[in-house]
Design goal:
Length: about 80
């Protein structure tokens, strides 16, 4: 995601070699699921999601992207 750290928004960009089901979920640092941002079919190519802070406190959060058999987790930092 860019920028990171951020306030109040950041962009999560990803590339899909072929279209398919995508899920992007946000977790707190303890692993508690907070929100599902993206869930559904996305076309092949570059995709972008703009995350707007919806009242989360400053701190470290983890987002997980799942696309087909591919899964990746990254951290993002909210600063106020």
């Amino acid at each position: 995601n860019y920028p990171n750290p951020f306030n109040p928004s950041t962009n999560i960009s990803y590339y899909l070699a072929k279209g398919g089901y995508v899920n992007i979920t946000l977790y707190d640092i303890t692993g508690k699921q907070l929100k599902v941002f993206v869930e559904g079919y996305r076309p092949a190519g570059y995709n972008n999601f703009k995350f707007l802070n919806f009242g989360l406190a400053s701190g470290v959060y983890i987002y997980k992207l799942k696309a087909g058999d591919y899964t990746e987790s990254r951290k993002m930092v909210i600063v106020k």
